UniProtKB/TrEMBL annotation:
Protein name (record): Glycosyltransferase
GO cellular component: endoplasmic reticulum; membrane
Lineage, highest ranks first: Eukaryota, Metazoa, Chordata, Craniata, Vertebrata
Chain ranges of the Glycosyltransferase 61 catalytic domain: 2-69
Record-linked InterPro entries: Glyco_transf_61_cat, Glycosyltransferase_61
Compartmental location: Membrane
GO molecular function, one term: protein O-acetylglucosaminyltransferase activity
Any Pfam family matching the protein: Glyco_transf_61
Keyword list, A-Z: Glycoprotein, Glycosyltransferase, Membrane, Transferase, Transmembrane, Transmembrane helix
Chain's gene name: glyt
Main localization, broad class: membrane
Topology of the protein relative to the lipid bilayer: Single-pass membrane protein
GO biological process: protein O-linked glycosylation via mannose
Length: 210
């Protein structure tokens, strides 16, 4: 990611991964590279490391037996946001999933003055701003417009290398042996039936497509 939810010490993380696993580490950018070139890299990778975000959908192109490592910012509980963990566990994917969560508030950078949809909270009452600032765990919520969720998920993170490597080492110990695993049938999505599209105007500056 190049604008929000950054890994602030990306170079240090790359070096740590290269040294730990004696592997070549390649960075990919959805903003700067073509999609086919990204898929070419990922389809030959043994591990994909990324902050939580839509870019992790590319894990569906990983080869069997690869590892998905999802990083979560401070105060964001991995157990509550599991789309990519679920993807890795689908029949036929055969991916090993590991999550790391930043537990050190001093290793996070927040942006309270940004627009609300990019994690800003300046539009909220002072008491609510203060409550969110001192919270250490985003409570369960239904809506992606939840200000506390947005404030925390768009933080930038200085990844703590020792704790990250420990989580990785411990997670790799539990990696299943694919030679003993029967290949599952390929997953095929069901056919969409009776689809309907509906538009509605919410305000002079907001419309909704359902």
């Amino acid at each position: 990611r190049s604008t929000t939810r950054l890994i602030l010490n990306e170079a240090e993380l790359i070096m740590a991964l290269a040294q730990e696993f004696q592997m070549r580490v390649v960075t990919v950018s959805l903003e700067e590279q073509s999609f086919p070139s990204i898929i070419q890299v990922i389809s030959a990778a043994s591990m994909l490391v990324s902050m939580h975000g839509a870019q992790l959908i590319t894990s569906m192109f990983l080869p069997r037996g690869a590892t998905v490592v999802e990083l979560f910012p401070f105060a964001v509980n991995p157990e509550q946001y599991t789309p990519y963990k679920t993807l890795a566990s689908l029949p036929g994917m055969d991916l090993h999933y590991i999550s790391w969560r930043n537990s050190m508030e001093e290793k996070t950078v927040t942006h309270p003055d940004r627009p609300w949809e990019q994690c800003g909270i300046a539009h909220l009452e002072k008491e609510e701003q203060q409550r969110i600032m001192v919270s250490t765990d985003v409570p369960r919520h239904l809506c992606c417009r939840n200000p506390e969720w947005l404030f925390r998920i768009y933080q930038d993170t200085l990844v703590d290398i020792p704790s990250f490597l420990k989580v990785l080492r411990d997670g790799m110990k539990n990696k299943p042996n694919l030679k003993k695993t029967k290949i599952a049938n390929t997953v095929h999505p069901g056919r969409v039936r009776e689809a309907h599209c509906q538009t509605s105007v919410q305000t002079p500056h907001e419309a909704r497509l359902t």
